[in-house]
Write a structure and sequence with these properties.
Radius of gyration: 18 Å
Number of strands: 4
Strand content: over 45%
Structural class: alpha+beta
Distance between the termini: 52 Å
Largest sheet: 4 strands, antiparallel
Order of helices and strands: EEEEH
Helix content: 25-40%
């Protein structure tokens, strides 16, 4: 199980799962219940079939590059004197 801690009470967990014989990748937000001292999954998340995983990753990377390009464009526009 791989996880990305967002803060003390929230993390994103990526794991392989199987349901009714179908395998998939689950990407889900978990929260820490202080009274139970345990992590619990939330409804916030997605599942990706293994056959779609490469396409999903490519889309995420493309969106990330778009954001980086937009950020760079904004910086360049700020540098132009008027």
């Amino acid at each position: 199980m791989n996880e990305l801690k967002k803060n003390d009470t929230t993390k994103i967990v990526v794991q392989k799962k199987e349901y009714k014989g179908h395998k998939y990748i689950d990407i889900r937000t978990y929260f820490f219940d202080k009274s139970a001292q345990k992590w619990f999954p939330t409804k916030k998340g997605i599942t990706v079939a293994p056959r779609l995983l490469k396409q999903f990753i490519d889309i995420v990377l493309a969106v990330s590059r778009e954001k980086d390009n937009q950020r760079q464009k904004n910086v360049e526009e700020e540098d132009i004197p008027f």
